[in-house]
Amino acid sequence: MSDLLNRLGYLQTRRDRTPNLDLARDLAARDDIAGIREIAENMWNDNKNIHGDCMNVMYELGRVDPNLITPYAADFIKFLKSKHQNMAQGAIIALSEVAKVKPDFIFKHLDEIKKVKETGSEIGVNKSISTLAETAAANEEYSKAIFPYLLQHILSCPHKEVPEHAERMLPAVNENNSFDFIKTLEKRLEELSGSDFTRLKKIIRIAEKI
Length: 210
Known about the structure:
Elements lengths: L17 H12 L3 H9 L6 H17 L8 H7 L5 H17 L1 H5 L2 H10 L2 H15 L3 H17 L5 H8 L8 H12 L4 H15 L2
């Protein structure tokens, strides 16, 4: 096993992910392209613990600098169909970062992202909304294709999810669609109470200033 892989949490017999986060930050700080490639290649490792840790390192890298993981965007799309939930979740987390710097790629794979939104875990749904919102924010063409779909989701999702999902949509809200966004949120407002009501009202106020 290489010195780099030996820094993974699993190979250090650690149950927490701190070693993976430290490795991601180190690779980013050194702009270690070769090291990042080795981690990316081992997302396909036969050992599920190693490939899980490598996916963890990759999406943590994306949080530091999305550009460092864009060469592996196609791999993340493939992992959305993984039978291992941690790999599928890790892939959509990574793609939510890729969307910030490579929306054109995400736009070509809208169907795959929408499928995660419709069938994924809670993390998968949340991150797919972020991925779609960041892509919609790129230009008017993407916004027209994606934003109505997100609004429809807000209208139909369980009321407890509305504040979280509306907040994730904010990057895509602009002066052309803020009115529709606000009106959609107001339709769900009466279903909420307590902190959920307060949170959604805050999002509406933010949108009103756009």
